[in-house]
Amino acid sequence: MTDFAQVLADGLMNGAIYGLVAAGLSLIWGVMDVINFAHGEFLMAAMYVCYWVGVLIGLDPLISWVLTGAFLFLLSAVSYKVVVRRCIGKSAMAPLLATFGLSIFLKNFCLNMFTPNFRLLSGTFLEGMVFNFFGMAIPAPQLAASLFSLVMLYVLYYFVKRTRTGWAIQATAMDKEAAELMGIDTERIFTLVFGLGGACVGIAGGFMASYLAVFPEVGTLFSLIAFVVVALGGFGSIPGALCAAILIGLVESFAGFYIAPVIKYVAVFALYIVVILIRPKGLFGW
Amino acid sequence: MFAKRLMNGILERRVMLLFALSALILSVVCGSAFAAEEKVIKIGALFPLTGPAAVSGQNCLAAVQTAADIINGKHDFKDFPLAEKEGLLDGYKIEIVPGDHQGKPDVAKSEAERLFNQENVFAIIGSYNSSASKPASAVAERLKKIFMCGASSSAELTERGFNYFFRTAATDAIESKEFVDYIDYLNKNKGAGIKTLGLLYENSEFGKHAAIEGKKAAATIGIEVVADVPFTVGATNMNSEIQKLKSTNPDVVFGAALGSDYSLMARTMKQSNWAPKIFINYCTGYQNPSINKELGSDGNFFMGGMGYSPEIAEVYMKAALPAQEIYRSKTGFPLDSDSIQESVCLHVLAQAIEKAGAADTEKVVNILRSETFPSPLSLSGQVAFSPGGQNNKAFTVITQIVDQKYLTVFPKDYADSELTYPFPAWDKR
Amino acid sequence: MVEPAGKNRSVEGRVWIALVAALALLAVIPGAIGNRFYAHVLVLILLYASMAQSWNILGGYCGQVSFGHSVFFGIGAYGAGMAMVKYGTVPWPGVIIGAILAAAVSAVISWPCFKLRGHYFAIATFAIVEIFGRLFLVWDWIGGALGLDYPIMDDSWKYFLWSSDKTGYYAGALVLFVLVFGVVRRMERTRLGYYMRAVREGQETAESLGVNSSLVKLMAMALSAFFAALCGAFFAQYNYRVDPPMVVSLDMSMKFVLITILGGMGTFWGPLLGAAVLIPLQEYTRTYLASLGPGVDQMIYGLLIIFMMMRQPRGIMGFIGEFSGKAGKTAKKGGDDNAAS
């Protein structure tokens, strides 16, 4: 029974974190119909920022997440302005491949600058803290990351649904030309959305650096899982992304323990295929 | 109108041919090698300088360059053949030509060919990943050229009956036997009561093969395998893996996890507040000093097989210490058990060339196969190859990390400390 | 997408024959190939061009952008590998079986996937690559994570293995190249070719005109998979080894896509042009820029992709179109000349 509870807890926490990583991607996809292939590398960049800030200035991730979020907002917005903007509309594949090129560039840039050594942030406030209830071991850094992810997801959702800028974003997503006719500066909206997407993954990365090793390839698998989460949830839907992420976290956790750890990702991808065949536009897609 | 269309057609044709031709010309121009007239023996160093194993790959290259520096320069090192003399033979210098296989076997194959055919290297030292060493050494064997392999651990490499392949490190088969010898010793002499085994290994050529050898060895002393847990390299978390181990609770775990997975594994075990009674590693993140530095006290009490540690060197391999300083100046870290094997490769090869009197492959190979070489960088002090290329003097000790120092616990002749057994509980430190 | 009409097509035909003749000549002149580095680059160019063209059938001509081709590539590679290593015979039966199996697998997985549109389809193909890749890693019958290593053998056509002299590999790659490109050239003018393009331009419209889009997509997929598998078999023979991460990986899948798009998706020459630019770049930056530090070659690779996609997403064929003043003409116009309507 304790095994079951542990597996459940791990699945929920991982799921929440996947949710924050994927939320930004979902927003970008929904508004701009762009799959950002460099999403995993943005995560890696965020983790590096958190690591260096922690090592050089001594800021704890519990505080430095603001910095990593801001940095990634900028990085993402700049990527949009410099790269993606010139690719949109020209062909469906152009932004995807351009961001693929960006991902290769970022990964190797970090390899070259920071060496491939694995970096672990130690001495953080929550490090080593574990809450034990009912036989479950809940590590504090992951718990903080997942709770924070949920909060940020709600904030993002609220922003999109309830604020004027959020409505502008929704309008742009539904019909770009109509939005422009209504006086919305869609160019600014696109920049904002890309930046927000980056900020989400930046915040996620900021928390993850407190318990995961940082190295150039760290983002690869997270990237793939994020794509599947977004597609599973239905593009553009933040609640969809969260549900899909939790579902994937749970499937990964249960398949990993009750079947075999080595196929836990097979189960995740297989889940996607199964669901998408039943609902071709994802759980909440429209 | 017609003329314009014709011009467009010709233009298009020309442009296309231009593209194809320029690619061809570029290839030919860049492909021609310039012959150097200096007294140089070129040796290729093929390692994963980028990609997932880049940390180890770059260390291995630095190790080879360290050995080259020692041989080429005039160093007053005690008991270190070729250190005092400048270069080899009558004034030949060794030139290391690096190649990056990026962790991919197909790139390893073409880099090996390029190093032999275009760079005209005399031999190649490489390639860390067993999956890359295999095709690269197949190239060497087909070309009848020497391939010196340092740290690739798969026993299969020396079971192929190759004539030009030489490997200096201990294989996963040798290490597995040593692990079970130690367990047997602990059971008989210390009443350890170790009966069950769990295996936690990355799902790659290296990990899978190590697990196979581990299971074989365990069977010889009647240890039961209760958990066989391969994991995906670069996983986002290790919750299921550690939980699986925790629920089956084996007494001993054999681990094969490189780099980041190793640190994730250690930290997840800490969070789950579980550890087996002993945890012994094949050549993995355990042997990497930079990872243990990052892990800090979380890395304590893990164990592994090693052919070198700075602590062992202080006592048993004093002749290697000056070499370590050169390596440290290149990487900022002391030598480690894996990369030092690559230095050994170059050092032994150089001695063979010196003995042969010339960089003649057949002569050198005969000497490599028949002689025993003094090797200050090897724990046993010597290197000698059996048919198939395995170094039959490869020797490892089992160490345990405490406060980032490797304490040797087995075999008894080399032990400098007592084993901390069982693994102290995480919450009681 | 540039569509060759009438006169252009015969120009293209002449260029094609001239090119094949020139390449074949290289194979015949003694010592032209040998073991030179450019020989390796040429073999790779021909191989990757064939791979890209096989992807082009489904992605370029039929408009279904799949990231799953490395699965078929892998099946072909394992076909050859299993024949050579597990069964100790010549690779050829394995090659044929692998190709047919790949086509069959493609039919099975595509049937449900084709219900998906746009990015959902693309991500489903990623998922399939990941599933197959990881399953292959644990499937012991094919060697699992250990992979299959080829025995050392003398050079021969029978086993399709060479060491010093790459002429055999070059000839084989050329045959593969001529086969795939030749079939595509033929196919452009058949009914299937037109139906494929119709589906690409607008599936609902095509269906309303009586095109069985599901069948068309399926046939494109099977043909595409068949050729991808043949390329995989060649890859295995060339590298003396097969293991899952070498062949069934997202990286390999991206190569299929990238080369075609860089050259010009949906065009006949695109795959060759893409390979002729990307492969030498990849090989030469790795070997000659190593002194600049690790990863520089890949940074350049990444930047090139970004640049191409920003500047001319239609690829090199798009550049050529601009250069020779065809920028105004669209695919529709070319298509109208020959459309079966």
Write up this protein.
The complex is a heterotrimer of chains A (286), B (429) and C (341). Chain A is mostly helical. Helices cover 73% and strands 3% of the residues of chain A. Chain A is built from eleven helices and two strands. Chain A has helices spanning 2-32, 39-57, 61-82, 94-114, 140-162, 164-174, 176-181, 186-208, 219-233, 238-259, 264-278, and strands at residues 130-133, 136-139. Chain A has a two-stranded antiparallel ribbon. In chain A, strand 1 (130-133) and strand 2 form a beta hairpin. Chain A is globular, with a radius of gyration of 19 Å. Chain B has 429 residues and is an alpha/beta fold. Chain B has two domains: 40-169 and 338-384, Rossmann fold, CATH 3.40.50.2300; 173-312 and 396-428, Response regulator (Rossmann fold, 3-Layer(aba) Sandwich). Helix content of chain B is 44%, strand content 17%. Chain B is built from 13 helices and 14 strands. Chain B has helices spanning 2-31, 54-72, 105-117, 130-143, 172-190, 205-220, 239-248, 259-272, 289-295, 310-316, 321-331, 339-356, 361-370, and strands spanning 40-47, 93-100, 123-126, 146-149, 165-167, 196-202, 224-231, 252-256, 278-281, 303-306, 372-374, 382-384, 397-402, 405-410. In chain B, the strands form three sheets. Chain B has a seven-stranded mixed beta sheet, sandwiched between helices. Chain B has a five-stranded parallel beta sheet with strand order 2-1-3-4-5, sandwiched between helices. In chain B, strands 11-12 form a two-stranded antiparallel ribbon. Chain B starts with a helix and ends in a 19-residue tail after the last strand. By secondary structure, chain C is mainly alpha-helical. Chain C has helices at 6-28, 37-61, 69-86, 92-113, 118-138, 167-188, 191-201, 203-208, 213-239, 244-247, 250-263, 270-288, 296-311, 315-323, 331-338; strands spanning 148-149, 241-242. Chain C has a two-stranded antiparallel sheet. In chain C, helix 7 packs across helix 9. The longest helix of chain C has 27 residues, at 213-239. Chain C is globular, with a radius of gyration of 20 Å. The two termini of chain C are 19 Å apart. The model of chain C is unreliable at 327-341 (pLDDT under 50). The chains are: A mainly alpha (286), B alpha/beta (429), C mainly alpha (341). The interface between B and C is large, with 56 and 56 residues.
